Amino acid sequence: MSKTSNINRVDGFAKVTGSATYSAEYKTSGVTYACLVGSTIAKGRIKSIDTKKAEWAPGVLAVITHLNVDKPVGYEQPKSRNNFGQPLQIFKDDSILYYDQPIALVIADTFERMQYAASLIKAEYLKETHSTDVQKVINKGKTPERSKDYHRGVEDGYKNAEVILEEEYTIPTEVHNPMELANIIAKWEGNKPIVYTKSQGVEGTRRSIGGVFGVQPEDVEVHSEYLGGAFGMGLHTWPYEIAALIGSKKIGRPVKLVLHREQMFTNVGFRPYTIQKMGLGATKEGKLTGLTHEAVALTSSYEDFTEATVNMSRFMYDCANVSTRYKIVEMDTCTPIWMRGPGEATGSFALESAIDELAHKLDMDPIEFRKRNHAEKDLEQNKPWSSKYLLECYEGGMERIGWKNRKNKPGSVREGEWLVGYGMGTGTFGSYRSPATVKAKFLSNGTLVLQCSVNDMGPGTATMMTAIGAEITGLPAENVVIEMGRSGLPKGPTQGGSATTSSVGSAVHDACNLLVSKAIGLAHETNVFKSTPIANLTLSNGTVISKDDTSKSVTLVSLLNDNKLDELIVENESKGSEEARKYSIYSFSVHFVKVLVNPNLGKIRLAHVVSCADIGTVINQKTSAGQMYGGAVGGIGMGLMESLEIDHRFGRPINNNFADYHVPVNADIEKQEVFFVNKKDPISNPMGTKGLGETALVGMAPAIANAVFNATGKRVRDLPITLDKIIEPSVAMT
Amino acid sequence: MKNFQIIKALSSKSAVSSVGKEKDAMFIAGGTNLVDLMKKNVVAPDKLIDITGIDLKQIEFLTGKVTIGALAKNSQVAEDKIIKENYPLLALALSAGASQQIRHMATVGGNMLQRTRCSYFYNTDMPCNKRVPKSGCGAIGGSNRMHAIFGASDSCIAVHPSDMCVALAALEATVFVEGPKGKREIKFTDFHRLPGNTPEIDNTLQNKEIITSIVIPENNFSKNSHYLKVRDRSSYAFALISVAVGLDIQNNTIKDVRLAMGGVAHKPWRLTETEEFLKGKTVSETTFRQAADLAMKGARSYGENDFKLTLGPNAIFEALTIAASK
């Protein structure tokens, strides 16, 4: 990927100039404005709801509640909870299942009138006792169907070891909160729903909406061409989207609904509060002999949300005896949804903190300890790795961060007044590949058009597709046009799990190769190349040439014109190979941090952050580095700041705004670097890539916790590491 | 948000008379806090009187004092060359507040009048005596990490969020106001009040009065002053605790000192007893530690903010040390 490995983000200009159209920005004639009014209790029933004042307010077109809603036919389907449960059926009845659950939809002719009318709605409730505090119900966890206990070797074998570590780690609820709010414009064309919405998966949104309204997925039109971030919240079709469609059907006009920032904290999922117990055992020489990882995570009362929190512990290290257990507890909240790095980010905090703690107990350098337990193959699946350059990540990071300056004894390095600590944490994520279909077209104006319904929530999917398409066809990147993010295009997968490049990139790769063959085949039929063996023909910069005799050439444009074609088309579905199933395909990342700590003020400075990753071939340095920086910053937020604080007396969050819910700012990170091993994976896909988006975040939070320990001797096992957890009374002089 | 009218006042006198006729009228300047409060339905005025057209934006240096117009922007004051030279404590405190964008909008008068950031105050379906008298205090027994350790009451443990005001309390500023009964002056430390049984009242400004300027007397603290702000991230976060310190050091002896804390009380918390203790003492680590401990006399925490009892003296010690070493 030489020429195209550093092309600029193809949608960058549109995004920074504001010409990119996000869902709520589509010009729609006759559009109306809607908002959702939320419940002020966390559990119970609506006793009464007074909508009269709102209905009479100027400009109001409709107020919809459970009392007057035309229930979509999908609500009548029998309810099953045996697997995932069922998404909240908005306005189905009077029950309140979580704080800020929508109880009314207000639609008006202007935004301001809608807002005012919404403020007039008053509800009374029959309150029931809510449960939002996971710590109080930790023993009520249930093992979900799809997260069975796992044992390798002796169950809880760590207990027999020479050196044992048993600790508990907690992460709070964190919220995705992309800059672009959850939003939709919903309308109907006869019985066919049309939505402009914030979705990470056009095809998934079509299925969800189709299911609720009893419409075939093919008859649901979805547009989600630009996303201002999503981080996983766009993986679910949320009740607000259904509400907008119900509203539009009722008034016969398009309805625009944009959630308030506060509702982004309560109604569109989050990373769930999770308590983890680790048991690790090793020999005195530092060989891991046993590892037990247990997690209890929050879900809603109506859907079983699960994630791979404990899975990393099964394969990350060479360890004979491994047990994992995963439970969920039903709480009175909205359903969680995978948030960047999902379960692995949560799990790595416990695993990588515990590994650091055990290394300290053994008085061993934590990287040396990891190297002694380096897994040469995947012991969980008993398969070889497709490729694994984790050791190279360790080396690259150690050099850049200055690991040699680290001392094993906490608090023994100083820079002026500051205590210095070095820490690292390892991350990993499965490198998945889903089937994807891409249509590739050469147009008679010399353009290559690539079409796929896949979304680009920000990682640079369009740029990746452009780079691969340009590389294979030999056309300049400027000649490539990407059409994506809407229904009606060849079907792409949902964007999640770091699988897009492997899935869609491969489909672009295959479709473009087929298209090139098709063009060469046509060229071979021309007089120019009749006598040239087809194997000697190649396509470069829009022209078919002979490798032996460069004087002979036929341009693509003339080929199309001579054959009276407007375009040359290939549509092709690509999917993973049988061969790939024989391997275990994972990406690996290692985050290194150098912190400076003032223990008297509890101030933690991130003096230097280095993130290294083994993600196979790097298709584009710029967008990949951008993802890695962003993922690392997300991990820094997880480590130092992010926490949705719940006042359990009321069962509701109290910091549901950007002033009180902190994410890092530029000034928090003094120096940040990114480094890729950039070695092709021979198995994963034709390009040799592995996933990046998720593993970019996994392992950062423990790296910070480990560095803070190295600096101060304080081990923080409950995130985030706020200053109150490390502050010490200043030592009186005498 | 309910519908409201907005009119523009061109003089402080016309502003005062405009508000006088309306039942629920409020002044608006930068709007960096008021607009939030309106969006959250915490306040719902029928009428806003935009005072940004009034000529109260000047910073004037006169013999022995500086006068800062109430409508001077926070960034304007923070970046003023003479303020930076003669009142660096004020410039540091202003720069530590909010974000650059907000500082460009926010005015000096508005900064003084901003409301607490207590979550219970902002969420209209939660109890809050400050928003709805007699509805209870949600923060007591609830989330109170940001809350007061000094001067709180059973009604309210909220803190005043300003950085600027902590510096102005230390610098013994005077507030000039104008109202229907004419003009008057208020000592800065008397401007904000403690909650007592009436936490709904933030300050001693009377109904329909408008702040026109603040005046800061000349001082000898320009060399050895510091504003230390401890917060949960490096920028754009309210203070958990802040310390404003001005030292007048001559021959290693503290001739005069001003000390105030932010993020600890319903008003900027001036530490006069600690100032008295420090006066005349030699600059030393021991003196500063003793002062830091003395400053915490009478402090009381409420659970989540217990750490402030440790952070408080540490921050005072650190601020004194930094100021003395400048």
Question: How would you describe the overall organization of this protein?
Answer:
Chain A: Residues 17-129 form the Aldehyde oxidase/xanthine dehydrogenase a/b hammerhead domain. The complex is a heterodimer of chains A (734) and B (326). In chain A, helix 10 (461-473) runs parallel beside helix 11 and helix 13 (621-640) crosses helix 14. Helix content of chain A is 23%, strand content 25%. By secondary structure, chain A is α+β, with helices and mostly antiparallel strands. In chain A, the strands form 7 sheets. Chain A has a 7-stranded mixed beta sheet with strand order 3-5-1-12-9-10-11. In chain A, strands 7-15-14-13-8 form a 5-stranded mixed beta sheet, with helices on one face. In chain A, strand 21 (537-540) and strand 22 form a beta hairpin. The longest helix of chain A is centred in the C-terminal third of the chain and has 25 residues, at 500-524. By secondary structure, chain B is α+β, with helices and mostly antiparallel strands. Chain B has 13 helices and 12 strands. A 5-stranded antiparallel beta sheet of chain B has the order 4-5-8-6-7. In chain B, strands 9-10-11-12 form a 4-stranded antiparallel beta sheet, with helices on both faces. In chain B, strand 10 and strand 11 (253-262) form a beta hairpin. Classes of the chains: A alpha+beta (734), B alpha+beta (326). At the A-B interface, helix 3 of A face helix 8, helix 12 and helix 13 of B.
